[in-house]
Amino acid sequence: MNKITIVFGVVLVGLGALGYFGGDPEHRSPTAWIPAFVGIPLIICGLLALKESMLKHAMHGAAVFGLLGALAAGGRGLTKIGTLFSDDPDVNKRATVMVLLMFVICTAFIVLCIKSFRDARKRREAAQQEAS
What we know:
The chain is mostly helical.
């Protein structure tokens, strides 16, 4: 799961870069980097998790960052989803799409984390039963 965490972090940093550099240069906003602010800690946690002694703490930290990213993006994106159906040319649909993409990416990461944590618990319980 540590390598998957690094991949998700890189994807979020890439989403931030795409949001910032992919838009109109006259309307660039530092808030486009918000996915990267979640992705960088994920990368760091994933790298820390490569060391076996740091695995549990790093992955739980990564799950927290992923959850915070999902909550922040979901709170912002889901309230603005109506803008995607607007005919108003002044409405920034691109920003809404980027926020919703961050929400989907972070939510997928959290789902994978939960599955990984459950699988690890089952493995530990099975190993304890075999040892008994």
